[in-house]
Write a structure and sequence with these properties.
Layout: H1 2-58, H2 63-74
Helix pairs in contact: 1-2
Length: 75
């Protein structure tokens, strides 16, 4: 068995490095997803609330009240 390892050690090493790299990239993206998911969700909520708040603001309501009413209507 030792001659097999001596002959193909570089191939085994390359395969192990590819597997390790894929694992580390997947691990990093899973951690990044845990951090970034609430941020993306907040942008989606903002894009849903902003047109309503803008509508109220154009009708003469102060921006702070328009945003509060739009947020209340969303929840």
């Amino acid at each position: 068995m030792l001659p097999l390892y001596k002959k193909y050690w570089r191939t085994f090493f390359d395969i192990a490095m590819i597997v390790l790299t894929v694992f580390l990239v997947m691990f990093a993206f899973s951690k990044l997803y845990q951090i970034a998911a609430p941020v993306f969700l907040s942008f989606i909520v903002f894009w849903m609330i902003e047109p309503i708040a803008r509508f109220f603001h154009r009708r003469g309501m102060p921006k702070i009240y328009a945003s509060a009413i739009a947020s209340y209507c969303f929840s």
